[in-house]
Amino acid sequence: MRKNQLFNIDALKPTRKRLRSSLTPAEAFLWTKLQNSRLEGKKFRRQHSIGNFIVDFYCFTEKLTIELDGALHFTEEGIEYDKRRTEFITGKGIQELRFENWEVFEKTDEVLNKIKSMFKKQTAPT
Prior knowledge:
This protein has 126 residues and is α+β, with helices and mostly antiparallel strands. The protein has one domain (10-116): Endonuclease, Chain A, CATH 3.40.960. Helix content is 40%, strand content 20%. The protein has 5 helices and 4 strands; from the N terminus they run ααβββαβαα. It has helices spanning 13-21, 25-34, 76-91, 101-106, 108-117, and strands spanning 45-50, 53-59, 64-69, 95-100. Strands 1-2-3-4 form a 4-stranded mixed β-sheet, with helices on both faces. A hairpin with a 4-residue loop joins strand 2 (53-59) and strand 3. The protein starts with 12 loop residues before the first helix and ends in a 9-residue tail after the last helix. The mean pLDDT is 90.
């Protein structure tokens, strides 16, 4: 790892690659809405590492992570891990949005609208 490297630490590359090739159904579905800058022209990366944590989706320009929570996130260990990850990520000035997997399928428009609501509003020069 390069000194002070925050994003995509080399040691996590094999894990990121494995996770990208085995997305959960909810991740794969949301990715179809985010990939190729489909959501308001914002570029998202999937399975992106920040520090020693790998987030489901990350948008550099918005400093925004999106996490999809399945059953493992609701275990005692999962809750503690997510708490540590959230503290680390938000401590770096990055916003975090969390959705349960079922929301991606059953409330797609609401999920996408919530994501868009987190985008910084660009002001026109005067």
